[in-house]
């Protein structure tokens, strides 16, 4: 359906024997290693999805500014303008979640919860953005004449790949339940400097 730019294939191993000296990461540690890598992968996936959401956002702003009905750009109508506003809010929030997870990783600290939050929110926000963008574009958005249909297909996969949205929610609730709330950083303090810059560059 989507992610057609990725060279994906099945790899099947049967009765493979690995010499002890060739073990990578130690015996029976594969799952924990994968989880550690997911901590780093999740913010990266989230950033990619934010890029797609940003492109969808720019497309819908451009189209709704040029497309006219009843003598007015369709972005002047509440049904369209509210969609654009919601997309802008989710895009800004996604950026904050991603930056926060990246900052925690840069400090060399565990970022399992932060990465899961960034991936969960950003992928679902990107899906909503592509869905609403397609809706605003109407029939032309459903065709291959525009990139919206590709964005829609690609984003849907990332709600599964790299850890499903359900897994991300499980990780978040587990981290919240097992960690002391005093250990949770003040997110607003992390961004007091960065917030001096515009969160989203609104270019019609």
Protein architecture, described:
This protein is an all-alpha fold. The protein has a single domain (37-196), classed as Butyryl-CoA Dehydrogenase, subunit A, domain 3 (Up-down Bundle). 61% of the residues lie in helices and 2% in strands. It has seven helices and two strands. The chain has helices at residues 30-66, 78-106, 112-137, 139-142, 148-157, 165-178, 187-190; strands spanning 68-69, 72-73. A two-stranded antiparallel ribbon has the order 1-2. Strand 1 (68-69) and strand 2 (72-73) form a beta hairpin. Helix 1 runs parallel beside helix 3 (112-137) and helix 2 (78-106) packs antiparallel against helix 3. The relative contact order is 0.15. Mean pLDDT is 85; it is low at 193-199.
Strand tally: 2
* Largest sheet: number of strands, sense, barrel closure: 2 strands, antiparallel
CATH topology: Butyryl-CoA Dehydrogenase, subunit A, domain 3
Helix content: 55-70%
In CATH, what is the class? Answer: Mainly Alpha
* SSE ordering: HEEHHHHHH
Distance between the ends: 30 Å
A few lines on this structure:
The chain is mostly helical and 204 residues long.
Give the SSE layout.
Elements (H helix, E strand, L loop, with lengths): L29 H37 L1 E2 L2 E2 L4 H29 L5 H26 L1 H4 L5 H10 L7 H14 L8 H4 L14
Antiparallel strand pairs: 1-2
Task: Label this structure with key terms.
two-stranded antiparallel ribbon; mainly alpha; Butyryl-CoA Dehydrogenase, subunit A, domain 3; 204 residues
């Amino acid at each position: 359906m989507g992610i057609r730019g990725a060279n994906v294939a099945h790899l099947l191993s049967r009765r493979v024997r690995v010499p002890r000296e060739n073990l990578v990461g130690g015996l029976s540690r594969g799952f924990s290693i994968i989880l550690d890598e997911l901590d780093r992968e999740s913010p990266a996936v989230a950033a990619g999805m934010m890029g797609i959401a940003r492109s969808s956002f720019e497309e819908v702003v451009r189209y709704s500014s040029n497309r006219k009905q009843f003598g007015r750009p369709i972005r002047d109508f509440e049904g369209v303008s509210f969609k654009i506003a919601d997309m802008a809010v989710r895009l800004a929030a996604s950026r904050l979640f991603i930056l926060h997870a990246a900052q925690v990783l840069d400090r060399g600290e565990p970022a399992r919860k932060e990465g899961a939050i960034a991936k969960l929110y950003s992928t679902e926000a990107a899906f909503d953005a592509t869905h609403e963008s397609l809706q605003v574009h109407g029939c032309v958005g459903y065709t291959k004449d525009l990139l919206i249909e590709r964005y829609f297909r690609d984003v849907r996969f990332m709600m599964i790949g790299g850890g499903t949205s359900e897994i991300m929610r499980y990780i978040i609730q587990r981290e919240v339940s097992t960690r002391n709330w005093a250990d949770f950083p003040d997110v607003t303090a992390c961004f007091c400097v960065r917030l001096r810059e515009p969160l989203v560059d609104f270019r019609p």
